[in-house]
Backbone:
């Protein structure tokens, strides 16, 4: 006789714990957003006027968050590095020089390992920005600008493991980075300089970098016989043909779909201007590759190719969705 073992219904309990954690941390973030005031602007003033780097430091979990903040700042145009507070006391203070701004993280504001670093900033007159939950702490009192985290419950049921507090630190670091890049007018082109690799780098590539130009473009005039046009389409292998007028302006496109619609015994004797689709979708050479992908999919009838044109509408190149795939975008 077999006996079935009932599996405890842990899924619902686990999901409830997870939701409680996320709701608790979300409440902390909302409280943080509501608490920001003039001191945040003062912190951005200090960071924006720095002639050196942003030196981020913190111990334990705050240190892990600090590393991420430093990486985000560096990738958005603000030279930054993380200095471990304990290592700072053993020689790494020499990395922090005139022109630098120090951003120190400590939830309690009483982290002993930060003492030497704080003293270094006071001795050499370096701006010190603190992120802490304790406005009366040693770190907050020493700082030029103290960004105070609001009181919020940790998501840990014992209230001990840093959860909500580190989430607020991380989010505040993101807010600082985005406010700073916005004030500096940091653009997508600037962003790409620091993100040349991977899919993000591909999305930030310019159309001119991936398009086919010159003799690679399949082009014909409106009077070109379709017999000639079909040969040209086959040779270029883009599945389309650009139609240019006497001024070299793109006035239409012939696609595989146009050929199917015009199929008949007289097709080869007709002219490209008779069956072309007028005013095709185009894009400029300085548009981002990501914009090209969006343009290809921007309607109920996606396209696989785009002609790249200058401001006057003259073709400079052609871009196929396969080019975006090879670039790692699509």
Residues:
């Amino acid at each position: 006789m077999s006996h079935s073992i009932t599996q405890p219904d842990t899924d619902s309990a686990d999901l409830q714990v997870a939701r409680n954690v996320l709701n608790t941390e979300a409440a902390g973030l909302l409280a943080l957003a509501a608490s920001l005031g003039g001191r945040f602007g003062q912190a951005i003033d200090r960071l924006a006027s720095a002639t050196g780097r942003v030196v981020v430091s913190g111990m334990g979990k705050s240190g892990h968050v600090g590393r991420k903040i430093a990486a985000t700042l560096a990738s958005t145009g603000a030279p930054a590095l993380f200095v471990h507070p304990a290592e700072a006391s053993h020689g790494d203070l020499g990395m922090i020089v005139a022109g630098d701004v120090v951003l120190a993280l400590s939830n309690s504001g009483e982290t002993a390992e930060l003492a030497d670093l704080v003293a270094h900033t006071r001795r050499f007159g370096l701006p010190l920005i603190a992120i802490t939950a304790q406005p009366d702490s040693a770190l907050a009192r020493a700082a030029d600008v103290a960004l105070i985290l609001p009181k919020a419950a940790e998501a840990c049921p014992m209230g001990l493991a840093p959860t909500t507090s580190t989430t607020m630190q991380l989010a505040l670091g993101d807010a600082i980075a985005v406010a700073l890049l916005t004030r500096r007018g940091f653009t997508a082109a600037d962003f790409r300089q620091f993100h040349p690799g991977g899919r993000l780098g591909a999305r930030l590539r310019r159309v001119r970098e991936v398009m086919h130009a010159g003799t690679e473009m399949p082009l014909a005039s409106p009077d070109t016989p379709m017999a000639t046009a079909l040969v040209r389409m086959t040779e270029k292998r883009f599945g389309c043909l650009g139609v240019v007028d006497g001024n070299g302006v793109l006035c239409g496109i012939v696609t595989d779909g146009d050929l199917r619609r015009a199929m008949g015994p007289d097709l080869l004797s007709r002219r490209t201007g008779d069956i072309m689709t007028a005013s095709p979708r185009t894009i400029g050479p300085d548009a981002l590759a990501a914009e090209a992908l969006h343009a290809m999919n921007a309607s109920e009838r996606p396209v696989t190719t785009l002609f790249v044109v200058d401001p006057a509408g003259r073709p400079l190149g052609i871009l196929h969705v396969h080019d975006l795939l090879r670039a790692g975008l699509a």
The chain has 15 helices and 13 strands. The domain at 207-326 is CATH 3.10.580.10 (CBS-domain).
